[in-house]
Amino acid sequence: MADVQFERQEYLNAKPDWALVGDVCRGDRAVKKRGEEYLPNPSAVEDNPNEKKAVYDRYKQRASFYNATGYTREGLIGAVFRKVPTFTAPDALNYLESDADGAGVSIYQQSQEVLGQVLGKGRAGLLVDYPTTDAPASRAQQAAGLIRATINSYDAEQIINWRTTKIGGAHLLSLVVIHEHAEEPTADGFGLEAIEQFRHLSLEEGVYIVRIWRKPESGGAFVIHEESIPKRGNGQPWDRIPFTFVGARNNDSDVDKAPLLDLATLNIKHYQVGADWYNALFYAGQPQPWMSGLTEQWVAMLEEKGVVMGSRSPMMLPEGGQFGIETVTADTALQKELEAIEQRMVALGARLVQPGQAVKTATQAQDESETQHSILSLAASNVSEAYGQCLAWVGEFMAAAGEALYQLNQDLTEHSLDAQMLKELVAAWMSGAIPEGDLWAYLRKVGLIDPEKTDEEIREETQNDAGLNLDDMTDGGTGTTP
Questions:
Q1: Which site in 212, 329, 355, 421 is 20 to 30 Å from 435, CA atoms measured?
Q2: What is the distance between the alpha carbons of residues 59 and 274, in angstroms, rounded to a whole number?
């Protein structure tokens, strides 16, 4: 019997790490929901189960989770998208700018989430899909948006099985199984029901086939619910699966280590030490009254009547009796350890954007065999390459000719340009010391020229304008006067 639910060992090995990073990035509620998995119970010696649970609940409630990992993840995404990605495509694919997945998510929004998945878990997946039709879609149907290819993204946890096969000189994906849920309206028409299913992508005898597996209404094992053979825009079946992995190191099928895993692990340790610290503060902050010099008769009398403390309730003691209140200072060793962990978390976060040595793929490196780059810039490069491949597949589905490109910003350095430097650059260009294209490329990088403008557009605008008045520039600004 076919077991579409089979999970690869590499998937099983990485799944706990993905869960950890995911919980930590989601924040306090998700972490505390895991209970003793992340925060051991300090009341293990309690004999009464109810009391043990009550002590632990109070201990966990006092704890505070500082989401350094989640903040770092959002900050890294923001650093990449500080500049708008470059998107160029034939007119037939321009709809992807506002709706890449068919649900109204733009390619910019989707790629932010994919980059976040790659940073958090080291892995994501992109599938190009197309509505099943009996015949190739007409241009009118495509132009009206009735039939369009989509780019669908999947989390690492959803991709449970995969296999590659060597075909000719290349290793191609021959199997991908994705665990997902489809939403269908309930019988009353108001609610939505999540239907568990498996999307089975296979390459069989050189033909790409899609099968959807669901459980029948009567229950039992998963069976094939739908089966289709997607066609290119020319009506021919695909000879490969239009699915690509997106990784932290490269986009092959290997499971890469999650870049944020070490930070998330340290974040949990900070949570644990912090819980002990807040617990210590709680107990150290509780004043402990004491009495001495009491006779047994006096003790019995106080136990019977109770003891009331306060300025309006004088406490009667026997001759020689004493009363006092003691407080203790919380152990500062815990506080010092918290500070040390926070410093290590800052260092780990900084490493993600510091240059390092690694080899990029041939497409990324172009003429360089090795380059200085950070983990973040490499992840951004991998996401860009994956979307470039997907755009090519979308073009084949839509029978759209022309080159398509989607490029995330990989220049994570803040560039500054003062008026004097700008004046010298323009003077060097006017004297022929630097080419016109290089000047414009630099001005795009510092944000002085719209990065979406081509050299031809800039040339046309400058020819129709009065030009730059260098004499009016001052050291206090970076702008120009017409």
A1: 355
A2: 11
